[in-house]
Amino acid sequence: MEGQFGWGREEGGWRKGPWTAQEDKLLVEYVRQHGEGRWNSVAKLTGLKRSGKSCRLRWVNYLRPDLKRGKITPQEESVILELHALWGNRWSTIARSLPGRTDNEIKNYWRTHFKKGKPSKNIERARARFLKQRREMQSQLLLQQQQQGQDQQQRQRQAGDDHDDGAVTREASSSPAVSLAAKHEEDLQMLQQDMDDLLFQFCCPMASSSCLLPGATATSASASEEGSSGDHPQLDGGATWGWGTLWNLDDVVDDVDGGACGGWDTSLFPLLQDQGLAFY
DNA sequence: AAAAAATTCAACCGCTTATTT
DNA sequence: AAAATAAGCGGTTGAATTTTT
């Protein structure tokens, strides 16, 4: 099928380009026998003419059995958006929260769907999903509150049968149920603010001054749009998207050891927690 | 119907970080 | 302790595919 093109020929002893089914088979068999790792010995032991680097990449991004094939779901997309807002282009870190997805896949997804300069239908769809998700959370919360209110009234009535006073004020100030609800609402409000900021960025690309991150400075914001040299960074009118401010967090979030995310209140992202996804 | 443009994504590269010798 | 090797990461590329004109 291939080989007739320049792509896929040998170079410096190593084959390059797309993998054939036979090559895949060899690699899979190697991993079955020897486990993951020691990629440089794949060539020695199997005769496969691929560099260790290439073998590792093929395994990690394509052959691994725990990979989830198929399209990114709306839920996954939400997670990607939230985590990218948190961590910027730390694709592997983001990937850790999406079982079965590779950093490469997420990176590709982000670039094709949300990269600046491509304000497309995709963004509109994402926006619509954001709004929908928000509405759902809102109504859910409302329902919860109503239910809690009813419970409370009931309890008050019961308490009122014995002692008519005191119970109400105590309830309001120290009941765990109430403070929990308040906390939840606080979280929701903060999330909504985040979403709004995000949407604002989506809708008003030129308004780059606002920043989600406490303590983030605008110093590097205008300087370079995430490092990519000026190939297609500009919108038709010459306006650039303001992502730089939002996404380049390396200076802000200094992960001290192994990608730990110091100082972030994870309750800001209830979506992730609801889905049982891990924070680092 | 076909040519052009846009999109997708697997695989590459160079660089950094971790591990081994 | 340091040099060598391996693994990991993020940016970029370009062939194949899909969509638009």
Could you characterize the architecture of this molecule?
- It is a single chain.
- This protein has 280 residues and is mostly helical.
- It has two domains: 54 residues, Arc Repressor Mutant, subunit A, CATH 1.10.10; 154 residues, no CATH class.
- The chain has eleven helices and two strands, in the order E-E-H-H-H-H-H-H-H-H-H-H-H.
- Strands 1-2 form a two-stranded antiparallel sheet.
- Helix 7 runs antiparallel to helix 9.
- The longest helix has 42 residues.
- It binds a DNA duplex (21 and 21 nucleotides) through helix 3 and helix 6.
Task: Provide a quick synopsis of the model.
Residues 158-168 have a biased composition (Basic and acidic residues). With 280 residues, the protein is mainly alpha-helical.
User: Main sheet?
Assistant: 2 strands, antiparallel
> Could you list the spans in which at least 5 consecutive residues all have pLDDT below 50?
1-6, 118-124, 160-190, 199-280
The percent of residues in helical segments reads 40-55%
Number of strands: 2
SSE order in H/E notation? EEHHHHHHHHHHH
Provide the residue-averaged pLDDT.
61
Evaluate the radius of gyration.
25 Å
Total number of distinct structural domains: 2
End-to-end Cα distance, whole Å, is: 44 Å
What amount of the residues lies in strands?
Answer: under 5%
Strand order in space, largest sheet: 1-2
Output the structural class. Answer: mainly alpha
Apparent shape? elongated
Question: Count of helical segments?
Answer: 11
